[in-house]
Write a structure and sequence with these properties.
By secondary structure, the protein is an alpha+beta fold. Helix content is 22%, strand content 20%. It has 4 helices and 6 strands, in the order ααβαββαβββ. The strands form 2 sheets. The protein has a 4-stranded antiparallel β-sheet with strand order 2-3-1-6. The longest helix has 16 residues. The termini are far apart.
Length: 149
């Protein structure tokens, strides 16, 4: 009995092997979405996306609310709100330091991640580790019979 397998091409599985034209189009659409989005910090952990949407409804039509969570599903305390119009961003920035669930919100325009920014981070100096590239002491192969001099 033979089993038939469906092998998917690498292009469909991994986003790392995409052609440059589609990657540029994806990056452009991401930047366009980021121009219509805001970052909301200090969001209460018990706050739901519907409550955040209701809080920013006066600014314009809310397309999406994303409250980020950690790997255990607990909220991280910040959210992203995407609007349909770019004009809503200026009105949403006026709600900076407004209160939601008794906490003062921090509202900023969402920044676009620049790919490759976090590639190299030099090591910090640790005073307890000593000099890193020093060779260990190797005694001489032949000791002088006359002492040190």
């Amino acid at each position: 009995m033979t089993d038939s397998f469906n092998f998917l091409s690498i292009k469909t599985i991994s986003p790392f092997f995409t052609d440059p034209a589609s990657a540029a189009a994806t990056q452009a659409s991401r930047e366009e979405v980021d121009l219509r989005s805001i970052f909301v910090g200090n969001v209460d952990y018990a706050c739901t996306p519907e409550e955040v949407q209701q809080h920013f409804q006066s600014c314009g039509t809310v397309n999406r609310v994303t409250i980020l969570t950690d790997k255990f599903g607990q909220p991280k305390g910040f959210a992203y709100v995407e609007f349909l119009e770019t004009e809503a961003i200026q009105e949403a920035l006026l709600l900076n330091e407004s209160e939601l669930h008794g906490r003062q919100l921090k509202v900023m325009a969402k920044r676009t991640n620049v790919p490759g920014m976090k590639q190299y981070r030099p090591r910090r100096f640790n005073p307890y580790m000593g000099y890193r590239f020093r060779r260990p002491y190797v005694p001489p192969y032949f000791y002088s019979p006359y002492g040190y001099g």
